[in-house]
Design goal:
This protein is an alpha/beta fold. Helix content is 43%, strand content 14%. It contains 16 helices and 11 strands. It has helices spanning 3-8, 20-26, 42-59, 70-81, 86-91, 104-118, 136-150, 155-166, 172-181, 187-200, 205-227, 233-253, 263-266, 282-290, 330-337, 393-396, and strands spanning 11-12, 31-34, 63-66, 127-130, 257-260, 295-309, 318-322, 342-345, 369-372, 388-391, 399-406. Strands 1, 2, 3, 4, 5, 6, 7, 8 and 11 form a 9-stranded mixed β-sheet that branches. β6 (295-309) and β7 (318-322) form a beta hairpin. The chain is globular, with a radius of gyration of 21 Å. The two termini are 30 Å apart. Residues 352-359 and 416-427 have low confidence and may be disordered.
């Protein structure tokens, strides 16, 4: 590896002003997807928030969609667009791992967003929404409450769906296991529910939230059925749901959107070994649907530091060390090449999947290398046997933020213990 070539392609990143080249690359893109190499690193959240603020202030982006549950994030949305305190809404997160969103870094951004929105008319305020698919019961209860108050004519469909799921003890994973053993499911009830809500709910914010909760129920029903079968289907169901939700949010707000999610969802799967395993992801889907000019994908990486994670799913999370990166990985190369702590890389535009970078011979970022990915479950001592995704950096991202040494984020409260099976198994991302 030519380290001088790496140095020549690096742009020092000392403050948010150093993000100017990313803003230039964004242009008129409809979506900017901003990643993270772990769910528990302060620096990723801080730089992601700094870039998002600039996208809102300077580019007119109108909502933030995150790798979180719709009902939980809807409380945050009401706080940032209304009169509540985002701290209270974020502290109320209960699903493990709560530290992903219930942390001081997200509180700081959401309080800034609340202040930004105070100067805007209600219809123009920037929202904060969850894109994920896990909240089957929470979303079903939200639909029931909405229908009881606003759509009594649809209560029969809601009741049928709830009764079907109640027979599985309010446990979506038990539901998935049961449908594997017996070819019965609640699929038809959910389809009926979604059709009823889509046709009857008004186009206001409450009606949109109800329709989205019904869509979550449909997505979760499919997700939990596919999860127990193994293979890539459940991952793909989840990321397609996130991509569909992103478009619905953009249409509802009439605005461009920012996404916060793990690199594994944000970076184009076709530039990794995920494609060979039959997996797609959010970054790939959005590129395919909206074209490479319609989306900008931003990845993050680090060489060493600390991170918040759990030893196993449901265990109390704590601060762990992040050891120096594995030899010959993206992170090891950047650490060796760069004398400064933070840097920005922007491979030539058009170098994405199906394109070609306009230079002679492969640049360093066009060569496949391992790229570290840390989930909410992490064992630093076993990192050399895993945690690295084979990646062609220039095809996976449009921009890459390098932070040589990083530190753990600051959760709002301790993590509950428990022995739940991981919903994001085996990746925990």
């Amino acid at each position: 590896m030519d380290l001088d070539e790496v140095r020549r392609s690096a742009l020092p990143l000392n403050d948010p002003g150093g993000l100017d080249p990313v803003l230039d690359r964004v242009g008129d893109a409809r979506f900017v997807l901003i990643g993270e190499a772990s769910h528990g690193t302060h620096d990723f959240y801080a730089w992601r928030a700094a870039l998002t603020r600039r996208l809102i202030e300077e580019k007119g982006f109108g909502f933030v969609g995150v790798e979180g549950d719709w009902p939980d994030c809807e409380r945050v949305n009401r706080a940032v667009t209304g009169d509540g305190d985002p701290f209270d809404a974020l502290y109320a997160f209960e699903r493990w791992p709560t530290f992903m969103w219930a942390n001081e870094e997200v509180v700081g951004f959401c309080r800034w967003l609340r202040g930004w929105n105070d100067a805007l008319e209600p219809a123009s305020r920037v929202g904060f929404h969850g894109l994920d698919v896990y909240s089957l019961w929470e979303s079903l209860r939200a639909v029931r409450l909405y229908a009881a108050d606003r759509l009594p004519g649809q209560m029969e469909a809601v009741t049928r769906a709830m009764r079907c799921f109640e027979s599985y003890g309010h446990d979506p994973q038990q539901y998935g296991l049961a449908t594997r053993m017996v070819p019965e499911s609640c699929e038809q009830e959910v389809v009926d529910l979604l059709a009823e809500l889509a046709g009857a709910a008004p186009a206001d914010a409450a009606g949109f939230a109800a329709r989205q909760n019904a869509a979550v129920v449909a997505g979760a029903e499919h997700y939990y059925r596919s999860m127990v079968r193994g293979g890539p289907e459940s991952w793909n169901v989840r990321d397609v749901h996130m991509a569909d939700t992103l478009v619905r949010l953009s249409d509802f707000h009439g605005a461009k959107g920012v996404v916060w999610a793990h690199n594994t969802h944000v970076g184009d799967a076709r530039a990794t070994d995920m494609a060979a395993a039959g997996m797609t992801n959010l970054g790939q889907i959005v590129r395919e649907r909206h074209g490479e000019d319609g989306v900008v994908l931003v990845g993050f990486g680090t060489h060493r530091g600390t991170v918040v994670a759990g030893d196993r799913w449901g265990a109390r999370a704590h601060v762990m060390r992040v050891p120096p990166a594995r030899t010959a990985s993206v992170e090891a190369v950047l650490h060796e090449a760069l004398p400064f702590r933070a840097a920005l890389f922007l491979p030539p535009a058009g170098g994405g999947v199906g394109g070609g970078a306009p230079h002679d011979g492969p640049a360093w970022y066009d060569q496949p290398m391992g790229h570290r990915a840390i989930g909410v479950v992490y064992d630093p001592d076993r990192e050399r046997w895993g945690n690295y995704v084979p990646t062609v950096l220039s095809r996976r991202y449009d921009a890459f933020v390098w932070l040589d040494e990083t530190r753990a984020l600051h959760p709002l409260h301790g993590e509950p213990s428990g022995d739940q099976e991981p919903e994001t198994y085996p990746s925990a991302m």
